[in-house]
TrEMBL record:
A UniProt-annotated Pfam family: MMR_HSR1
Assembly description: Monomer.
Protein name: GTPase Obg
UniProt cross-references to SUPFAM superfamilies, sorted A to Z: Obg GTP-binding protein N-terminal domain (SSF82051), P-loop containing nucleoside triphosphate hydrolases (SSF52540)
Stretches assigned to the Obg domain: 1-159
GO biological process: ribosome biogenesis
GO-annotated molecular function: GTP binding; GTPase activity; magnesium ion binding; ribosome binding
Organism: Buchnera aphidicola
All residue ranges annotated as the OBG-type G domain in the record: 160-332
Highest taxon in the source lineage: Bacteria
Major localization listed first in the record, in broad terms: cytoplasm
Amino acid sequence: MKFVDSATIHVSAGNGGHGCISFRREKFIPKGGPDGGDGGDGGNIWIISDLNMNSLTDYRIKKTFCAEHGQNGSHANSSGRKGKDIFIRVPVGTRIINIDTNNIIADIKNQNQKLLIAKGGWHGLGNSRFKSPTNRAPRKNTQGSLGEHKIILLELILIADIGTLGLPNSGKSTLTSSLSNAKTKIDYYPFSTLYPVLGTVKINKKKFVIADIPGIIEGASSGIGLGINFLKHLSRCRLLLHIIDITTIKKKNINKIRFIILKELKNFDIFLFKIPRWLIFNKIDILTKKKIVKIMKYITKKINCNQKYYFISAKKNIGTKKLSTDIINYLYKKNI
């Protein structure tokens, strides 16, 4: 099933029912007073977050949601029935934007969060509401008001503590599946990851959520490749892991490899660029010990002393345990 992270929908709350003009007509009760009832309120439209949803696929086809109108009032002071509400379920992490004003209505970040997105119309008043000592037979009522109508954009931004970045085939998916319970697709061709995948890592009753997105290539910010379409899913992360295939360093300067990703991040969103990043040099299991020592010295010389970096093998689980522990300590504000 295709991963859908945005959808535009139309929502229309119900109109309020009209008030009734009626007078009491019963045998042996002459000149009965006004008994027109109020109308019913129009149905509301609510958005509710659902932890069991992970995509907006449901809204690829169904794009219009209309709540029920309130019924009109009737005689004998009978009020009209309220219109039924509509509940739209969305994944946790959905941002709701008003298309007409481009304003963010809400950012759904919690489970079972409930938001009134379109309010139903107010009920009209029946003529019994207008009786008074000076007007005992009012022929006046009010109409129910119209319900709200909006065109809104649902934009899913996954909620994760940690995000992975890297060129295709750098080992992001392997690392994500190695650290967590995520079931990611792993292969030797570029873009084996076609949509974001979340996994949960638990260590000593503490946990974090890691997000794996498709690889980013040079020129991604101008629309090349897949990764740029999903970079927004890293915007909520507290830490980014920049994965680098250590075997490619012999062919390219280390800073050139790093700056490919950094340039695309900066072009996409300066706030995403400012999220703390750790460098993860992956696939050390492929190299000989002599070669690893040589590259480690080279990298240590080239990397800024303030930049935190690790040498690991996601496939062989070398160095991944320490990486997970350090991430937990970082997220829970411990010195590492």
